[in-house]
Design a protein that fits this description.
By secondary structure, the chain is an all-alpha fold. The protein is 58% helix and 0% strand. The chain has helices spanning 2-56, 85-96.
Length: 115
């Protein structure tokens, strides 16, 4: 009789384990299903909100028929030039390909007194 009781309790334990495993799986599937529904609801709301925002946009097509305004600058003055006179001589020499001639005969003019 004891072997039958042990066998019955073993079968009962196995059945309980099998049932518990199934219940755990069902609980997990129910939780996943609930989360999927929440995600789908949020996705639907986001798509609905985007569609409403896009529907509110009103494109405007305009043709510009005004005359083009032009501003021509003739005298360009470079006030921020930081080159020294010696470097400017070198730059001009490089641009023209010839050496600049010295100004005058290298002598200063005579001093004139003003009365």
């Amino acid at each position: 009789m004891i072997p039958y009781i042990l066998m019955g309790s073993a079968v009962a334990c196995a059945g309980a384990f099998w049932y518990g495993t199934g219940v755990g799986e069902d609980r997990l599937l129910a939780k996943q299903s609930k989360e999927d529904k929440i995600v789908m609801n949020i996705k639907d709301e986001a798509m609905r909100g985007a569609a409403e925002a896009i529907a509110k946009l009103k494109p405007r097509n305009t043709t510009i028929v005004n005359e083009v305004q032009r501003e021509i600058q003739n005298n360009t003055v470079y006030t921020d030039c930081r080159n020294t006179s010696a470097s400017m001589l070198g730059i001009n020499e490089a641009l023209t390909g010839k050496r600049p001639e010295p100004a005058g005969d290298k002598q200063l003019p005579r001093a004139v007194t003003v009365k």
